[in-house]
Amino acid sequence: MREPQVFLMDEPLSNLDAKLRVATRTQIAALQRRLGITTVYVTHDQVEAMTMGDRVAVLKDGLLQQVDTPRNLYEKPQNVFVAGFIGSPAMNLLTASVSGGKAMLGNLGIAVPSSAGASVTVGIRPEGLIPASTGFEVAVEVVEELGSDAYVYGKPVDKALKFANTTEELGQVIIRWDPKNPPKAGQTVTVGVNPDVVHLFDATSGARIN
């Protein structure tokens, strides 16, 4: 019987349907932990990477962007690419001008380091945006109701707010909402930000600055 030191798996679940993919994913993870054999697992599916990996390497165009635990990839992405790639729905990435030591999102000011330039990229995950009386307004376009969650998709009313990772036509602000009381498409909502979960990136290099 062979006793390999390393297993290599290259997209092993790519041809399975969604339900079977989930079941097989958990079986592979349980088997790996039982055998205790190092496994290198290649995938384009971030859910597979985040749920199965002890450490995850994120690559772009063949270049290593970050190697870390799944939790740190989610909470402390080292650049804009990792921030936008990890997480579903994706992180909101907005370009904001800096004035008086704060990045301005509409009427909302977010403290930035003194090393920040004239503008920064502000990253906020959908759960980091919260309904508020002051902040910036979003015109609701689509509401996805998923039972335990609801996600609101819309455009910033303030046209000065620009998306850092896509065009204005394709860009949408994504907000995780109370599933028992979501807004309707066509409404305008005001959202604030939980300052503890804001990510700041250099607007030119994309590197993390906070």
Automatic annotation (TrEMBL):
Q: Which InterPro entries match?
A: ABC_transpr_MalK/UgpC-like, Mo/tungstate-bd_C_term_dom, NA-bd_OB-fold, OB_MalK-like, P-loop_NTPase
Q: Which organism is it from?
A: freshwater metagenome
Q: Which GO terms describe its cellular component?
A: ATP-binding cassette (ABC) transporter complex, substrate-binding subunit-containing
Q: Which SUPFAM superfamilies match?
A: MOP-like (SSF50331), P-loop containing nucleoside triphosphate hydrolases (SSF52540)
Xref: Gene3D superfamilies: 2.40.50.100, Nucleic acid-binding proteins, P-loop containing nucleotide triphosphate hydrolases
Q: Which residues form the MalK-like OB fold domain?
A: 87-127
| Name of the protein described by the UniProt record | Unannotated protein
Q: Which GO terms describe its molecular function?
A: ATP hydrolysis activity
